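Milestone 3.1: sequence recovery, worked example.
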């Protein structure tokens, strides 16, 4: 199912790209000029875009995490993707990685950044994606969408089975004011063509996971969220993908994981071709996710610059937005004033 036919009017691609085609936006501050918010040379945005930009907002939670707030009636619905906010030290970025690092959640920090979500989408079950989800699910009653492995891990943490929706890819879930479309994806690989903590669960573990190595990958998903009357956004949690599953998704905005190695063949060209060269490309999972969100993002060793260069070469009509933790973005991924 292509949700575009149900949700949108013609011309959204022109509105999203704006006048400055292919321009990268470097670590934008929380405030922006009229030119940033309305388009090149201060031109006023069409009324339709202003309405859409005011009804949806995006906040990057670091790694592949996002908070999406959608206006609904007199209130707001919040959707989270991979909300890892606690960001504790495992030694991963200092050369002393310890897979026995204990899992822990900073509850006050999670409440501050995550709000009260209605839905939480989990791309896979590694700690830098799932760690804070059990607490969020138990404390807010949010529905969690994820794999069977995610289901079993959450059950071991005491999350009610009725809150968890198990998906495999191909599902299109209709919520009040937005649609969540699920795509089968793949986890990124290291230089040895493998990755940390592979495996899946077909039953709850004997005890709730205690360390980061207790959380297996458990298959990987991607999610496309389409607000009523607004542009669609695709969220990836790792830098590999199922090319055939991505064909036809055609998101307006794509949050794409930056590759950590060159082990995936022609990652950027194949990915952008499969997605139909989105209007807006947002690189994610390039930051050191063991630094707090209160500090500016710092590169984690992945080649963000090369990723940006490849996107410009393959899809020069796409607008590039390098996100910042402090910035609230509108539906068109321009900073909100």
């Amino acid at each position: 199912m292509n949700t575009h036919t149900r949700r949108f009017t013609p011309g959204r691609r022109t509105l999203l790209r704006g006048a400055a085609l292919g321009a990268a936006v470097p670590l934008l501050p929380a405030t922006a000029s009229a030119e940033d918010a309305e388009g090149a040379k201060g031109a006023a945005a069409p009324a339709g875009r202003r309405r859409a930009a005011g009804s949806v907002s995006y906040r990057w939670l670091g790694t592949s995490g996002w908070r999406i707030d959608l206006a609904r009636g007199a209130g707001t619905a919040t959707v989270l993707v991979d909300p890892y906010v606690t960001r504790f030290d495992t030694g991963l970025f200092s050369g002393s990685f310890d897979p026995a690092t204990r899992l822990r959640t900073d509850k006050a920090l999670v409440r501050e950044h995550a709000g009260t979500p209605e839905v939480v989408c989990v791309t896979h079950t590694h700690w830098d994606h799932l760690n804070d989800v059990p607490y969020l699910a138990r404390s807010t009653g949010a529905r969690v969408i994820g794999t069977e492995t995610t289901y079993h891990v959450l059950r071991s943490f005491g999350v009610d089975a009725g809150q968890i929706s198990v998906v495999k890819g191909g599902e299109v879930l209709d919520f009040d004011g937005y649609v969540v479309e699920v795509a089968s994806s793949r986890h990124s690989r290291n230089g040895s063509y493998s990755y940390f903590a592979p495996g899946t669960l077909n039953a709850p573990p004997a005890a709730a996971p205690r360390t980061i190595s207790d959380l297996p990958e458990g298959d990987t998903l991607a999610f496309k969220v389409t607000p009523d009357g607004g542009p669609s956004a695709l969220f990836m949690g790792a830098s590999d993908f199922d090319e055939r599953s991505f064909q036809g998704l055609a998101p307006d905005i794509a949050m794409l994981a930056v590759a950590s190695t060159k082990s995936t063949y022609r990652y950027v060209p194949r990915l952008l071709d499969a997605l139909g060269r989105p209007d807006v490309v947002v690189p994610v999972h390039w930051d050191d996710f063991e630094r707090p969100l209160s500090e500016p993002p710092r590169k984690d060793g992945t080649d963000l610059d090369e990723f940006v260069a490849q996107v410009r070469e393959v899809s020069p009509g796409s607008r590039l937005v390098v996100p910042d933790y402090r910035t609230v973005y509108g539906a068109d991924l321009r900073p909100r004033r």
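The longest strand covers residues 178-186. Residues 72 and 293 are 28 Å apart (CA to CA).
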